[in-house]
From TrEMBL:
Name of the molecule in the record: 4-hydroxy-3-methylbut-2-enyl diphosphate reductase
Role played: Catalyzes the conversion of 1-hydroxy-2-methyl-2-(E)-butenyl 4-diphosphate (HMBPP) into a mixture of isopentenyl diphosphate (IPP) and dimethylallyl diphosphate (DMAPP). Acts in the terminal step of the DOXP/MEP pathway for isoprenoid precursor biosynthesis.
Highest taxon of source: Bacteria
Pathway: Isoprenoid biosynthesis; isopentenyl diphosphate biosynthesis via DXP pathway; isopentenyl diphosphate from 1-deoxy-D-xylulose 5-phosphate: step 6/6; Isoprenoid biosynthesis; dimethylallyl diphosphate biosynthesis; dimethylallyl diphosphate from (2E)-4-hydroxy-3-methylbutenyl diphosphate: step 1/1
Annotated positions binding isopentenyl diphosphate: H76, H109, H159, S257, S258, N259, S302
Organism encoding this protein: Paeniglutamicibacter cryotolerans
Taxonomic lineage of the native organism: Bacteria, Bacillati, Actinomycetota, Actinomycetes, Micrococcales
């Protein structure tokens, strides 16, 4: 065979099964007096915006056929992304990686007007799966920029949601990453100033940032309604309830999921003796269980429940079979699917799912 006809084949090494220490070994290492239990946070996992975005890609694959391109990760979860890839979704960083005329889905985190314009220039067909709560923040940024306000956007620079919001009015917006930056930021007109925020931040840290800003700029205005989404607040409130009683908190979620990372921080701030984030149950280190009587478990807003169940199964193997659900709120939020998907479903006579979120009407 000539070199010109040879196609290199790359074979990945098979993964080596994790050899765990036995439950008996862990129990003997640091004995625990009394029983072991799990405090399972509720709400946890998928929020309505995530559910809506994932369904949008699934329905696009079903009705348009593969491939369906998605700009950035549709939601920040490795399992969700890999599952959609297996079904024919192709994830790209920017629209210029999408073939002209192809179908591209904008992720739940939203995009700037420049991204929309780029897609139009390339003749791309688009489905906007931006979470409606993120869209609300975009609209606030546009509104206050038109009224010539200076906008302090509290959020993590480089995060896709922040990039999208900033892109709505870059000449009017400054990003404030943390409370420390609130102490040094310089504004042009402190009497016409408003703050907005990324939807997935720590509620406590955001309020501390606002407190510091207001101490310097007393006329700082609040957004018309809370920008931090209901799901982020509820998941943080649930872990605040659990943390003081927990020897260990396990948060299921990906490393680029802002709300998942915040849950680890909140658990530690509110009294958990240890807290770790994992994508999958096989990442849990059984040595974490040494001397532990109570484990708190939760998951970020982009995490499917199957991943939590895998963690609970592992915990049961190590003696944590008593699971007590701690509920701080009931969620029944529903969002309509993106208008492009709704139109396609109507055309196809598909009435199987028109909403994203929790509640009987979503099924």
């Amino acid at each position: 065979m000539t070199s010109s006809s040879t196609v290199p084949v790359f074979l990945s090494m098979p993964s080596v099964p994790r050899i765990r220490r036995s439950p008996a070994e862990i129990a003997a290492a640091v004995p625990v007096v009394g029983g072991r239990k799990v405090l399972l946070a509720a709400p946890r996992g998928y929020c309505a915006g995530v559910d809506r975005a994932v369904i949008a890609v699934e329905k696009a694959l079903e009705h348009y056929g593969a491939p369906v391109y998605v700009r950035k990760q549709i939601v920040h979860n490795l399992h969700v992304v890999s599952t959609l890839e297996e079904r024919g979704a192709i994830f790209v960083e920017e629209t210029d990686e999408v073939p002209e005329g192809a179908l591209v889905v904008f992720s739940a985190h939203g995009v700037s007007p420049a991204v929309v314009a780029s897609a139009e220039t390339r003749g791309l067909r688009t489905i906007d799966a931006t979470c409606p709560l993120v869209t609300k923040v975009h609209r606030e940024a546009v509104r206050f920029a038109k009224e010539d306000y200076e906008i302090l956007l509290i959020g993590h620079e480089g995060h896709e949601e922040v990039e999208g919001t900033y892109g709505e009015a870059p000449e009017h917006i400054q990003i404030v990453n943390n409370p420390e930056e609130a102490d040094t930021i310089v504004v042009q007109n402190p009497d016409k100033l408003i703050w907005l925020s990324q939807t997935t931040l720590s509620v406590d840290e955001t309020m501390e940032t606002v407190r510091r800003l207001r101490s310097r700029f007393p006329n700082l205005q609040d957004p018309p309604s809370d920008d931090i989404c209901y799901a982020t607040s509820n998941r943080q409130n649930a872990i605040k309830e659990i943390a003081p009683s927990a020897d260990l908190v396990i948060v299921v979620g990906s490393s680029n999921s802002s709300n998942s990372v915040r849950l680890v921080e909140v658990a530690l701030e509110y009294g958990a003796k240890a807290s770790y984030r994992v994508d999958y149950a096989n990442e849990v280190d059984e040595s974490w269980f040494e001397g532990v009587a109570t484990v708190g478990v939760t998951s970020g807003a982009s995490v499917p429940e199957v991943l939590v169940r895998d963690v609970l199964s592992l915990l049961a193997d190590y003696g944590f079979a008593d699971v007590q659900e701690i509920t701080v709120a009931e969620e029944d939020i529903l969002f309509s699917l993106p208008k492009e998907i709704r139109a396609k479903l109507k055309e196809a006579g598909d009435d199987s799912r028109g909403l994203g979120g929790r509640g009987s009407r979503a099924k």
